[in-house]
Amino acid sequence: MTKAAPLSDFSRLCIHTITTKGWELEEAVDRYAEAGVSGVTVWRQWLEGRNPSESGDRIRAAGLEVTSLCRGGFYPALEEKSRKEAIEDNKRAIEDAAALGAPLVVLVCGAVPGQSLTESRKQITDGIAATLPLAESLAVKLAIEPLHPMYADDRSAINTLASANDACDALNHPLVGIAFDVYHLWWDPDLEEQTKRAAQAERIFAYHVCDWMTPTGDLLNDRGLMGEGCIDLRGIRAIVEENGFRGMIEVEVFSDRWWDRPPGELLEAIKEAYLQHT
Amino acid sequence: MTKAAPLSDFSRLCIHTITTKGWELEEAVDRYAEAGVSGVTVWRQWLEGRNPSESGDRIRAAGLEVTSLCRGGFYPALEEKSRKEAIEDNKRAIEDAAALGAPLVVLVCGAVPGQSLTESRKQITDGIAATLPLAESLAVKLAIEPLHPMYADDRSAINTLASANDACDALNHPLVGIAFDVYHLWWDPDLEEQTKRAAQAERIFAYHVCDWMTPTGDLLNDRGLMGEGCIDLRGIRAIVEENGFRGMIEVEVFSDRWWDRPPGELLEAIKEAYLQHT
Fold it and tell me: I want to staple B107 with a disulfide (CB 3.0 to 4.6 A). Which of A270, B73, B98, B99 is the partner?
């Protein structure tokens, strides 16, 4: 497999606020800026009690790009009332993204234990479709993030790049694309073919990195920093870049192990891992 | 989705010895027989210090069928020496299966963290091929068990039914087929299509059941008993049975929660879950 050349500067380095969980938005932004990071993906919890428009200005004033707002989604539900509430919540996310100046909302699409994945996928595309007029009017893109199959019970019924491509085809809208996360997709034997399909449709909107730990002690919060695990990061980056992706490389690490340490240490480790292993 | 009719007796009920981990082989066999269970899949640890041929006779004398020997596999390795050792170990498993009177060895195929899954898959088919002459001479079948993608780091590079079908196509031998485990495959959007493909090639050799817990607290040992989780067991059984499968339904549950309780309680719970939910 072809390997991408090492990254030599931080012009494409973006960090998700949840990665440095101990920092509030302002501290994260200042520290990222000092460290030479170029972009930030803001998790919605980091906007609580804040004016999104002012937060966006604050981020840009620090010299950072707002890469995306994370996350909308969770459309499926057994009751119609809950599905409608999910749509309203997604509209708020789109409005917040527009105010923040984030070009994109990342979607963790949702699933309901015991409801068929086919039905959940239908509720997902229906839910996204219901928010498209607002997304159009505010020019905000929506990125379906296929999630690892170990999250098919209650987090997402879209578990492969092929399924994400299918959902995008069904919606057939230039504002609907894919957030490609190596953690969720690294194992997929169809990765190259489906990346090509996504790229041809110009729908790879985001690229998230971290690593898969062996052993993985927790399904949610035991991700590794790049290089700590087994994912062929440069092999996968070669695939997306051969297919034209040139966007931000977003570090999204959920890790109790790292969260127990000072965020400043993690930030230094991210910079090193980014140059050495990503 | 079509649902299979409830099972009304235990004529197809098989239990894996690891499910009732607290019992040695003899006790497991006696208790299964008393409970009306029809088959047993023997894990290799349960043969330690025993003569497999005598163990097979003991099982049959109790009125049970030996459904399979679990497990061979783990072919990939960085060093050729280790790959050769794995092949020798798999030959011993095939010999033990023949002595035990098990028609089948289940294969957990293996993976090496950091080695490409493509390379591991090649080492898997090479490893299986190296044992085929012995399997032929002893008339023992080999069943590739595709494992959930969360095990792609170090347990199996074959993570979908499609990949298992591809490996079987590559080996193209009537003794090589698939062990279909709902835990590993339930989430797969291609399940129906790939089951049909497997059935047309007459390669569905085994069918394992349990359930997927929400939340799942541990990647290895937090499986549910049928009905405790979100897997559409009757929907999936309908798919394999519409495609002609009529073999044993094997209960394979790894669960610290259940293992903390007396195996006799679990056995009663299995019987109920088998009739109510499988």
Answer: B73
Option in B113, B148, B186 nearest A230 (CB): B113
A45: containing domain: 13-277
How does B79-92 read in b/e, with b if 16+ C-beta sit within 10 Å?
A: eeeebeebbeebbe
* Phi, psi torsion values for A97, nearest 5 degrees: -60, -45
Could you give the CA distance from residue B222 to residue B200 in angstroms, rounded to a whole number? Answer: 33
Asked, for residue A180, whether it belongs to a domain, the answer is: yes
* Shortest distance, CA B177 to any CA of chain A (angstroms): 20
In-domain check, residue A8 = no
CATH code of residue B123: 3.20.20.150
Contact A187 B117 (CB under 8 A): yes
Assess: ipTM above 0.90.
yes
Q: Give the total number of structural domains in chain B.
A: 1
Of A75, A62, A108, whose CA–CA distance to A208 is shortest? A108
Residue B112 DSSP symbol: -
B225 found inside a domain = yes
- Dump pLDDT digits (tens) for A7-52: 999 999 999 999 999 999 999 999 999 999 999 999 999 999 999 9
Question: Which of B117, B163, B230 lies closest to A114 in CB terms?
Answer: B230
The verdict on pTM exceeding 0.95 is: yes
Which residues of chain A have a CB within 8 Å of the CB of B1?
Answer: 116, 118
